[in-house]
Design brief:
Layout: H1 15-29, E1 35-41, H2 49-59, E2 70-76, E3 81-86, H3 88-111, H4 115-133, E4 149-151
Parallel strand pairs: 1-2, 1-4
Antiparallel strand pairs: 2-3
Helix pairs in contact: 1-4, 3-4
Length: 153
C-alpha cells in the first residue's frame, strides 16, 4: 500500500532523448576501458554539486572500476546545478582544467535549454579523453557499469 504514496519520478526527457543519451554513453565506451554514468535529479542535496556528485559516485560504486577511470556527469535539473566527477585514474591524466572546460560547455548548452545536446556533448568529450588515456583492449576490457541514466528524486 505504501507504493501508492511514492513520488513519481519527474520525466525530464522523452524516451527518444533517453535513448540518445544512453547510445552516446555506449558509443563513447566502445573505444575505451573507461566508464561514464549520467545521474539526473531534481535538487542538489549537498551544499555544492561537486560534493553531491562525489556522494553519488560512491553510491553507484564507480570507484570500483579496475583502472579507476569512471566519470560521473551529475545534473540537478530544478536547481540548475551540475558537476563532473572523475575517478583518480582519469583525473590524474586530464586535470581540473579539463573538467571545468567540459562543465562550461555543458552550461552553454543548458543556458539555451539544450539539455540533451549538452549531456551528449560532454559524454562525447569525456569519451575522447578516456580513449586518449585508456584505449579499449579487446583481450581484457569489459563494460563494468551499466550505460543507462540513473534518476534520483
Amino acid at each position: 500500500m505504501w507504493a501508492l504514496f511514492q513520488k513519481k519520478p519527474v520525466a525530464y526527457f522523452t524516451d527518444a532523448e533517453r535513448e540518445q543519451i544512453c547510445l552516446a554513453i555506449t558509443d563513447a565506451e566502445k573505444r575505451t576501458s573507461g566508464e561514464i554514468r549520467v545521474f539526473i535529479e531534481s535538487h542538489c542535496k549537498k551544499s555544492t554539486p561537486i560534493l553531491r556528485a562525489a556522494a553519488v559516485f560512491q553510491q553507484l560504486k564507480m570507484e570500483q572500476t579496475a583502472a579507476r577511470n569512471g566519470v560521473l556527469v551529475y545534473v540537478a535539473m530544478k536547481d540548475r546545478k551540475l558537476a563532473v566527477f572523475g575517478d583518480e585514474g582519469i583525473h590524474s591524466r586530464v586535470g581540473e582544467a579539463f573538467w571545468q572546460q567540459e562543465v562550461d560547455n555543458m552550461i552553454r548548452h543548458f543556458s539555451g535549454e539544450q539539455h540533451v545536446a549538452g549531456i551528449i556533448s560532454i559524454v562525447h568529450s569525456i569519451g575522447e579523453a578516456l580513449l586518449t588515456h585508456f584505449p579499449f583492449d579487446e583481450k581484457g576490457d569489459e563494460n563494468e557499469l551499466p550505460n543507462d541514466i540513473v534518476f534520483g528524486e
